[in-house]
Amino acid sequence: MVQFAIRMPQTSGGCPEWTMVELQGVLETRDSSGLPGNRLGDLYFTKGGQPILLIGHHVLHGKVVELEKPFAVLVKEKKKNTEGDISEMDTGVTEGHTEKYSDYLVKAVIKNKLVFKNRPRPIINLPHKK
Amino acid sequence: AGKTRTLQESLAIADQAKLDLADLNSTVQSLYLSEDMADHEVRLLELDSSLIGQLEAGNSVKVRGDKSDMAVVCTEDSTFELKSTVTTNSLLLLPDCKAPEQLVSEEGSLLHNDIYCISHVYLELKQCRPKLKKLQTLLKENIFLGPEYENDENHTGKKYTTADLLSLIQASEKELLEELRKLQAVHIDGYWRLVEFDYMGNVLQYIMDTVDCQSWSYDQIPTEKLLSMEDNVYPRVLLEHCLDCYGERKMMDFDGGVEQVHTLSEDKVCRYFAEYLLRGVGKFNLAEFLQTWKESVPVGMTTTLEQLEGVALIDKKSHPEVISHFPVTDLPEDAADRFNRLFRTREKWTLEDITPYIRGLCEKKTDCGISSD
Question: Angle at CA A50, nearest 5°, toward A44 and A54?
Answer without folding.
Answer: 35
